Amino acid sequence: MKPAPFAYARAASLAEVFDVLERHGDAVRLLAGGQSLVAALNLRLASPDLLLDINGVTALRGVAFADGVLRIGALTRHVELGADPLVAQHAPLLAQAVPHIAHAAIRTRGTIGGSLALADPASELPACALALEAVLVLASREGERRVAARDFFQGLYQTALRPAEVLAAVEVPSQAGLACTVQELARRHGDYAIVGLAAQRAAAGVRLAWFGVGATPLRTPRAEAALMAGDVAQAQALVAEEIDPPEDLHGPPALRRHLARVLLGRAAAVLA
Question: 74 and 60 in contact (C-beta within 8 Å)?
Fold first, then answer.
């Protein structure tokens, strides 16, 4: 299929982005990597009047570390996440997630901001943001506001982004030296995960963030507590109670509950 007709514009600054958003409202879609948006356009699941290319907005680029916080610009591409030494040092969970994301061609174009703003519940990076207790920086003409990852993902493809806002960056408190792992099961490498887990050891515990098991990425606090107490079997039993997976073409909810227990066992061995 081919997309419905639309106009195209390219922004060179955030001010230009805000101008267009204020002028066109819901009729405009932002183009970053386009790895999900272009497919939606071709299937006519999205039919904007205007496509605004934001790849020239330098304020949305770059990775920096200061005062214990890693700041990742929203236009940072997946391949850059996997290769950046600051990410590898302070948020290795993100670097571990990159090889699981689709295929090399998509990782070359896709961006962290696009993935988080889309909020696909089967994607790796939203769950990683939750496990890392990241803060998402949302920019508008009025300035920046910060929203914790736990509050950003609000439903199936729904986020806390307001109509005139842009996801500008992701801020992650340093996780340097702490064990972490990304585990997932998919029918083929590069497919969306049937069940996935982003697990991060923290100074005061462990964080388990699941993807592919509901309308949003989610934490399982009772399983986290059991795992911290050293009872892996109890953690596996609890995680099956805490998730509410859908039934779909991959199988019934019981399948995903079983796979979640398997992944938690694998993650526990890494985090021990």
Answer: yes
Spatial distance between the Cα atoms of 188 and 19, rounded to a whole number of angstroms: 43
SS3 46: coil
* Cβ-based neighbour number of residue 58 at 10 Å: 12
CA–CA dist 211, 194 (Å, integer): 8
Q: What are the helix (H) ranges across the chain?
A: 14-24, 37-42, 78-83, 85-90, 92-97, 104-109, 112-118, 124-131, 149-152, 221-228, 232-242, 253-271
Q: Going residue by residue through the chain (272 aa), what tens digit of pLDDT does each one get?
A: 789 999 999 999 999 999 999 999 999 999 999 999 999 999 999 999 999 999 999 999 999 999 999 999 999 999 999 999 999 999 999 999 999 999 999 999 999 999 999 999 999 999 999 999 999 999 999 999 999 999 999 999 999 999 999 999 999 999 999 999 999 999 888 888 899 999 999 988 999 999 999 999 999 999 999 999 999 999 999 999 999 998 888 889 999 999 999 999 999 999 98
